[in-house]
Amino acid sequence: MFGNGFVALVEFSGRLLARQESEGIWIDGVNPGGFAIGAASFHDAGQAVRDALTLTLIDFAAEATTFEAFEAEVERFFHETDAASVTEWTVAVEAVRSQRLQGPPELPVESADAALVVRVVCKSTENVSAQDNPTPEPVLKAAA
Amino acid sequence: MGSFGQVPLKDVWAMLAECAPGHTIKLTTHYYRITFKDLVYATFPKGEHGKSNPPIEFGHVKRLARYFDILDCTKRFLSH
Question: Is the whole model's pTM more than 0.80, yes or no?
Fold first, then answer.
């Protein structure tokens, strides 16, 4: 991300709740909590999540006058959530683990015990490298 | 109402006036940033460009309401 006088690398590994509805897939954020998108398919939803988070970070970068302010805003955004959604996510994971609910087969599976990660790193020409380029990893994974 | 159903944006603003007194709304480059109590919802959609009262998918309203813990009031308000 380019901000006002800074360049930042941002990585998220969070939690989302997805529901299949008749019109498509609806996704509610858990971490980050202040976030939702709808899409026709999980494939489209992955791109929509990436796009929405990118636009959100651009908004934060536009408002922040320093890297530290940007970092604080991204971390607040990621961690702020509501207890009801966290509970619903936990219940959904238990349902998957007890085979009462099946995750979408088109998504790779990741342990629901994986740590929540938000990483905001200040970059400069001295510490930027080709390895900072985004890699085409799947945006969405099924928790299990 | 399903998440993909639509609500006029003006109805959302009226709902917030009723259910989230003291909230603030700020237009950013890509979203509305809505604050209530100590919470910030930074990604509320602006709706279709060029429309003065664009439709908003109900899922966004429901997510906002749950985030702010005003879901019961929101459902009551929007069912009228």
Answer: yes
